[in-house]
Target: Lipoprotein
Amino acid sequence: MTDFMEAAMRHALRVFSLLAPLGLAACGGGGNSEPEASGPTERLPLGAGQVAKLEAEPFINSMPGIFDPKSPCQNFIVPVRLLMLEGTLPAGIAFGAVSLRSGPDEVWRAQAAASEQYVHQGGLHGVARACANARTPVGRTVRVVAEVISGGGTKQVYADAVIGEAH
Model:
């Protein structure tokens, strides 16, 4: 497990322990294969001299006893990080929905939790989580697409990743 994944797991567990009693679990199944109005890009221009890229490490949490069995829709976790290649991170930037695509099909989608977004070392970090499904197996290469909300608009950025597993 990479340092990024371990830090994301620690953060996710900390936040989950606060939110679990409130019943704030959301399940995402995907299935929409309609193309986006303006397709995702690998390098995201955010403004004058501001360009970012996405890093993502989707994984299935297979650790026993971590999550309440009454809320199983938290076992697929997608930590995302928007890193600036040029310029500085714009104020007020946030993640919207995060989706996984395999070929032209969207196979998974969940909202990045606002309570789990933070700026660290000049990058925006976030986490989306929901149910794993038959189209999100460990080892599958997927395109992670994140909506980035900035300056009153929404853009999409992507990174290719392989679905991992935490034991």
In short: The longest helix spans residues 3-19. The chain has a mean pLDDT of 80. The two ends are 9 Å apart (CA to CA).
